[in-house]
Specification:
Layout: E1 4-8, H1 17-26, E2 32-36, H2 37-40, H3 48-56, E3 60-66, H4 74-83, E4 101-107, H5 125-128, H6 130-138, E5 142-143, E6 147-149, H7 157-175
Parallel strand pairs: 1-2, 1-3, 3-4, 4-5, 4-6
Length: about 180
C-alpha cells in the first residue's frame, strides 16, 4: 500500500461542481494526505522545503485539476517549477523522487470527442499530457494512467457523483498498486 499525497489544484473551486465532488470523495480515504494548493498558497508563495518534505514522506503523488489551457492551473505549474528543482528531483544528486509514483485526476470542459485529432482541440489527452509524463520521467518517477472526467459542463449531478466515486475507487486501486503505468509513446 502506497502512502499517498493528494493535491487538489483548482483556482476557483466554488465554480466546479465536479472537482469539488471528487475532492469530497477523496477525503473519505483515511490513508490519504489531502492538500489544497490554492487554499494553502493563495498568494503563490510556496513553502518549498515543506513541500519537499511531504514528497519525501509519500510514495504516490496525485494531482487533481482541471485541464487549464491544455495544461494545468498556474499554481500547479509554479509548484512544479519551484519544488521539483535540480539537485532534489532531477540532475546531479536529484534522486529524492526516484521510484515514486505520479498520477493525475483531470477534468475537462469538453467531451472526449473534442480531444481527438479530428476533434475541436486537435490533440489527444495523451499528447497534451506529455509534459507531465516527461516531468515524471525526468524525476525518475512512474507515471500512472490518469483518471479523466470529460465533458463536465454537460454532466448531470448523478453523472458527477458517479465520476467522483470512480475517481475514489481509481485512487484506491493506485494506492494498492493496481493502476498501470502510462506511456503516450
Amino acid at each position: 500500500m502506497k502512502k499517498t499525497l493528494f493535491y487538489f489544484v483548482h483556482p476557483v473551486p466554488r465554480k466546479s461542481r465536479t472537482n469539488r465532488r471528487v475532492l469530497e470523495e477523496i477525503k473519505l480515504l483515511p490513508e490519504v494526505t489531502v492538500r489544497d494548493l490554492y487554499e494553502t498558497y493563495p498568494h503563490f508563495h510556496i513553502d518549498v522545503d515543506f513541500e519537499k518534505n511531504l514528497l519525501l514522506a509519500h510514495d504516490l503523488i496525485v494531482f487533481q485539476h482541471p485541464m487549464y489551457w491544455y495544461s494545468c492551473p498556474p499554481l500547479m505549474k509554479l509548484w512544479i517549477d519551484e519544488v521539483l528543482e535540480r539537485g532534489f528531483a532531477y540532475g546531479e544528486g536529484g534522486e529524492a523522487l526516484k521510484g515514486k509514483f505520479w498520477m493525475q485526476i483531470i477534468s475537462t470542459g469538453g467531451p472526449e470527442t473534442a480531444y481527438q485529432r479530428s476533434g475541436y482541440n486537435r490533440f489527444t489527452i495523451s499528447e497534451l499530457l506529455r509534459p507531465f509524463e516527461q516531468t515524471a520521467e525526468l524525476c525518475q518517477m512512474h507515471y500512472l494512467k490518469p483518471f479523466l472526467i470529460q465533458g463536465v459542463r454537460q454532466l448531470s449531478d448523478l453523472s458527477i457523483q458517479d465520476a467522483a466515486e470512480g475517481a475514489r475507487h481509481y485512487l484506491q486501486d493506485a494506492i494498492n498498486g493496481k493502476v498501470e503505468k502510462f506511456s503516450s509513446i
